[in-house]
Design a protein that fits this description.
By secondary structure, this protein is α/β, with parallel strands linked by helices. The protein folds into three domains: 188 residues, Rossmann fold; 251 residues, N-(1-d-carboxylethyl)-l-norvaline Dehydrogenase, domain 2 (Orthogonal Bundle), CATH 1.10.1040; 40 residues, Up-down Bundle (Single alpha-helices involved in coiled-coils or other helix-helix interfaces). The longest helix is centred in the C-terminal third of the chain and has 34 residues. The radius of gyration is 26 Å and the shape is globular. The structure holds 6-phosphogluconic acid. The site of 6-phosphogluconic acid has 13 residues, from helix 8 and helix 11. Pathway: Carbohydrate degradation; pentose phosphate pathway; D-ribulose 5-phosphate from D-glucose 6-phosphate (oxidative stage): step 3/3. Homodimer. Keywords: Gluconate utilization, NADP, Oxidoreductase, Pentose shunt.
Length: 497
């Protein structure tokens, strides 16, 4: 029998979808899963593949020895297993089954990037460890995901044709095309081990924040403007035709216009308001804190999920904590909506600026030389944060690869300037009425701090010196000269330390 081009270990939702996508594009795949049910479902689904495909074939095997025997050399084995020690267990099982040093193992799960870095070190000389972070959920994996690859450079030569074939594609304008159309693939080699998973982690941080911003807009429309879920969905649908066009906006419009099949109420109103999380947004926020690369809106989105989880406390607080607030009964609805749309756009842009700044800081530290135009390019289709304005982000980094902050791009300077009043009024309305807007307001705080040439950190440094002799630099001396004021003595005097 013809040998397989690639094996997929783990035929759950993501693994099966990637395997069928590969088959659709003419590759022969060997599948393995500890669950016989998963294997059978994959084989059944492979019988009804997308008609246009230049089909390969899927076989399943019962052991890793059989799996290795079915593959052309060097063997390429993709893992779609839960992140964590299972990845190492499977790699060890593959080594025991006879994997050789030229063989390539690709982790396609949502692994922590530092684990991926450690794995490349650990398996050096035993196999070529590679990683590819996949975004796009089940449908993306099946018909065109965004693929963020990293690891051994030579291994990429074997993997690239397969990843380019199955990835989402965009046309010359950066717009998504069908899975079998010609176009630029949303798959790229991003750097050494860990880089791909790192970029995907930041993608997820941006995803958390983008979702939170949309949710705040929904809350504002519902509680301040008294709009129904159906009407809000309609407005989102309109916004999705303009600068806010994105997958998350599109699905939010659809969700809001869907009735609950059980009660007939708007579906969104029967969903319990407690958000779950698997942890990638938290990893991004922790990384931002550790690096000192501010991503406050991403961190805020993680906190917002945590606060949503404290339902019982919130229910109690809603009756205990009274507040004064201002309600304007004569609001101009259309104008308020226009301001909200502007606020959403600016806040979203600030989130991307935070995410790219964070990537820049880690890229420098790890000497990865991440290519931000390329990252923006592969996020244009297939992934969860795909959005029309990623084309403009791509152009911004193509024009200036060393952009210090995305908000400095001439295009975005102008785009934001004409919307800042709407952003400020929206945040003011939310504060006056008491309808929370932690993400949109934190993004405004980030923007204003960024454009503040003198922050009150002068007072803060003086406070640190006052109680802890932590020293300060002076504006009229070289920054590396450190001084201390004798706060407890009179008259006070300054000493250089
Ligand atoms: C994607 C998604 C995907 C997933 C995460 C989010 O890019 O396809 O980001 O990785 O939806 O698991 O998970 P949580 O919201 O559960 O943290």
């Amino acid at each position: 029998m013809t040998q397989s081009n690639i094996a997929m270990i783990g035929l759950g939702v993501m693994g099966k979808s990637l395997a069928l996508n590969l088959v659709d594009h003419g590759f022969n795949v060997t599948g393995f899963d500890i669950s016989d049910k998963h294997k059978q479902t994959a084989l059944d689904d492979a019988k009804v593949l997308t008609p246009k495909g230049d089909k390969g074939r899927l076989i399943t095997v019962d052991s890793l020895v059989e799996l290795l025997g079915s593959l052309a050399k060097p063997r390429v084995i993709a893992l779609s297993v839960p992140a964590g020690e299972i990845v190492d267990n499977v790699v060890q099982d593959l080594l025991n089954a006879g994997l050789s040093s030229e063989d390539i193992v690709i982790d396609t799960g949502n692994s922590l990037w530092t684990d991926t870095e450690a794995r490349e070190q650990r398996y050096q000389g035993q196999l070529r460890f590679f990683s590819t972070a996949v975004s796009g959920g089940e449908v993306g994996a099946r018909f065109g995901p965004a693929l963020m690859a990293s690891g051994n450079r030579d291994a990429w030569n074997y993997i690239e044709p397969m990843w380019h074939a199955i990835a989402a594609k965009v046309d010359e304008q950066g717009l998504p095309v069908g899975p079998f159309d010609q176009g630029e693939p949303c798959a790229a080699y991003l750097g050494p081990a860990g880089a791909g998973h790192y970029v995907k982690m930041v993608h997820n941080g941006i995803e958390y924040a983008d979702m939170q911003l949309i949710c705040e807009a929904y809350h504002f429309m519902s509680d301040i403007l008294g709009m129904s879920a159906q009407e809000i969905g309609g407005t989102f649908s309109d916004w999705n035709k303009g600068v806010l066009n994105s997958y998350l906006m599109e699905i939010s419009a659809d969700i809001l216009q869907t009735p609950d099949p059980v009660t007939g109420k708007p579906f969104v109103e029967v969903v319990l308001d407690k958000a779950g999380q698997k942890g990638t947004g938290l990893w991004t926020a922790v990384n931002s804190l550790q690096e000192g690369a501010p991503a406050p809106t991403i961190a805020q989105a993680v906190f917002a999920r945590a606060q949503s989880g404290q339902k019982a406390v919130r229910v109690k607080a809603s009756t205990v904590l009274k507040t004064q607030s201002v309600k304007d009964n004569n609001v101009d609805k259309q104008q308020t909506l226009d301001e909200l749309r502007d606020a959403l756009y600016c806040a979203k842009l600030a989130v991307y600026a935070q995410g790219f700044d964070l990537m820049n800081s880690t890229s420098e530290k790890e000497a990865w030389q991440l290519d931000f135009a390329q990252i923006a390019k592969i996020w244009r289709a297939g992934c969860i944060i795909r959005a029309a304005f990623l084309q403009e982000i791509t152009s911004a980094y193509q024009a200036q690869s060393q952009l210090e902050n995305l908000l400095f791009s001439q295009h975005f300077v102008q785009e934001v300037e004409k919307r800042t009043l709407g952003w400020r009024k929206t945040v003011a309305n939310s504060a006056l009425t008491g309808v929370p807007m932690p993400g949109i307001s934190s993004a405004l705080g980030y923007f204003d701090a960024l454009r503040c040439d003198v922050l009150p950190a002068n007072l803060l440094q003086a406070q640190r010196d006052y109680f802890g002799s932590h020293t300060y630099s002076r504006v009229d001396e070289a920054e590396d000269r450190k001084f201390h004021m004798s706060w407890s003595e009179e008259p006070r005097s300054q000493k250089e330390v």
